[in-house]
Design goal:
The complex is a heterodimer of chains A (222) and B (288).
Chain A (H helix, E strand, L loop, with lengths): L5 H4 L3 E3 L3 H17 L6 E7 H10 L1 H9 L12 H7 L3 E6 L8 E8 L6 E9 L2 E7 L2 E5 L5 E7 L4 H11 L4 E9 L2 E8 L5 H8 L4 E7 L5
Parallel strand pairs in A: 2-3
Antiparallel strand pairs in A: 2-4, 4-5, 5-6, 6-7, 8-10, 8-11, 9-10
Chain B lengths: L4 H11 L3 H13 L3 H21 L15 H11 L5 H19 L3 E3 L9 H13 L3 H21 L4 H4 L1 H19 L4 H14 L16 H20 L8 H13 L17 H10 L1
Chain lengths: 222, 288
């Protein structure tokens, strides 16, 4: 039996009309922005399933754009986000597409940059404002963004996990969950930790020889 | 601390406490937050509720899809003319419930209570009762804690999702929470709160979820208006001393089983009921 807190029942305080189509969509957009570099000039949203069919009526388009602009799910400017993006000179495009993913409320968010290649994030809004990120630029992942999360890609070699976890231990940080997958020589690690992520932790891990890529994502409010 | 209504009732009786007091104690214990923090959080919930319940009364608020809106203002204007069938209190409560629903559909700020689709019922209930009986801000806060306790039990033992249990799980739960809150705000016994919660659920047992085009608008807003009235009459039944012959926990179980046996077309898929009428289908094609 799942336990509930008071504010699971009286909450979230949110922008309507639907926790999965607006609150969840805003969190997906914001999470994508947290993961990607935010110097993008254009964002393309590929909408799948129910997102594709109902995004206009539910305002999912405005919620997603609000998220990539950095707004929280309770921000009353969400309904004006399309205009705000235009004022900021950010190009926005929505494309309905079958992504082949199972969850009906799934979106692929592609960021475009002037000075480098596109970068994308895939995630689903799974109900009650909860989200699940499933792909970060080709890395298959699975995390909710409810906890501070560290995403690392590295060249797999003996002792990598221990080197990474000892850096965290030295900073007195507890690892809540850890998932490692490997394709060829490249490993992807997703860690959820109990404390907020600080820059020095990310820098210390990034200094290890085998690290290709690392990013830290602090949780997003509901 | 409690999972069932009977457990919460026992805790209240053996320790001579109100529902809200037990709920507060449990939350402080579970969430590891201070009493002040908890009250601050609940105050901000109440602030949002008061805003959404009033925002659409004096100006028409239209939904993002363009399907609905402006009805809260119509209801409020009608009430203000006086001499209506169901009277000032009921009409005012209906207008407030419609207001929150319309704010929700226009991408305004609301509190999911327990869901966005049913968010109009509880705010309207506690504000209307506060106004009629000249109660305090604190009384409303206590009502919200009581409501949260009832909602938690239903969420744990049944469902509060329309996709899983139909509208009875969303608006039914909200009415049930609101009925218990009203009883406690008006000084009723703990048993009476549970009776009120039971009446509200069984009054609308079997209500399906059939929103046009899948949007939280029609008939959702109307069911928020009838939901708050359901809460008020259920509270009156309980305060009159009428007993629910079937206890609350069994009513909750029954609601869950009814939800489970509903065909999927009647659970938020917009494939049955009002959504599947020729007009519902036509509007869906126009909007989506």
């Amino acid at each position: 039996m799942k336990d509930y807190g008071i504010f699971d029942i009286l909450g979230p305080v949110m922008i309507g009309p639907s926790s999965s189509h607006t609150a969840g969509a805003t969190r997906l957009g914001k999470m994508a922005r947290e993961i990607a570099d935010n110097t993008f000039y254009k964002v393309t949203f590929y909408l799948h399933g129910s997102f594709a069919k109902t995004y206009k009526g539910h305002g999912t388009d405005r919620a997603l754009v609000a998220g990539i602009l950095g707004m929280e799910p309770s921000d009353e400017r969400i309904r004006d986000s399309l205009n705000i993006a235009k004022e900021k000179g950010i190009q926005i495009e929505f494309i309905e597409k079958d992504l082949g993913y199972e969850h009906p409320n799934t979106v692929k968010i592609v960021f475009s940059y002037y000075d480098k290649e596109d970068y994308y994030i895939v995630g689903s809004s799974i109900g009650g404002g909860n989200i699940l990120i499933t792909d970060v630029n080709g890395n298959k992942v699975e995390f909710s963004g409810n906890y501070p999360t560290i995403l690392i890609r590295y060249i797999d070699q003996k002792g990598s996990i221990s080197r990474i976890s000892s850096i965290l231990a030295k900073e007195d940080i507890n690892i809540a969950t850890m998932k490692v997958s490997r394709e060829g020589k490249i490993a992807t690690m997703i860690m959820e930790i109990d404390n907020p992520i600080k820059d020095n932790i990310i820098n210390n891990i990034a200094n290890l020889d085998e690290i290709i890529y690392i990013t830290g994502i602090n949780p997003i409010g509901r | 601390m409690f999972n069932k209504g009977s457990e919460l009732l026992n805790l209240c009786k053996t320790r001579n406490k109100k529902i809200w007091e037990i709920v507060v104690e449990k939350e402080i214990d579970n969430a590891q937050i201070s009493y002040e923090e908890l009250m601050n959080n609940m105050n901000s919930v109440l602030d949002t509720m008061i805003n959404s319940a009033n925002a659409a009364l004096d100006k028409g608020v239209i939904s993002i899809s363009g399907l609905s809106g402006g009805d809260a203002k119509k209801m409020e204007d009608y009430k203000n003319k006086g001499n209506t069938i169901s009277g000032q209190l009921i009409n005012s409560a209906m207008a407030k419930a419609l207001s929150t629903s319309e704010v929700n559909a226009s991408m305004g700020k609301i509190v999911a209570a327990p869901t966005a689709g049913a968010s109009g019922i509880l705010p309207s209930a506690i504000i209307s009762v506060k106004e009629k009986f000249n109660l305090s801000h604190e009384d409303m806060i206590h009502g919200l804690f009581t409501a949260a306790g009832i909602g938690e039990i239903i969420a744990k033992n049944a469902t509060i999702s329309g996709a899983e249990g139909g509208c009875q799980a969303e608006c039914g739960t909200a009415s049930s929470m609101a009925a218990a809150a009203i009883v406690e705000m008006l000084g009723g016994s703990v048993e009476a709160s549970f009776n009120g919660a039971s009446f509200a659920l069984l009054n609308i047992m079997g209500l399906i979820c059939d929103p046009i085009a899948g949007l939280v608008e029609f008939p959702c807003a109307l069911r928020n208006a009838s939901g708050v009235v359901n809460a008020m009459i259920s509270a009156d039944l309980a305060l009159a001393g009428i007993d629910s012959i079937v206890p609350f926990d069994e009513v909750v179980d029954a609601m869950y089983k009814v939800g489970k046996s509903m065909p999927e077309s009647l659970r938020e898929t917009a494939l049955g009921g009002i959504a599947a009428t020729p007009t519902g289908e036509k509007l869906k094609r126009r909007i989506l």
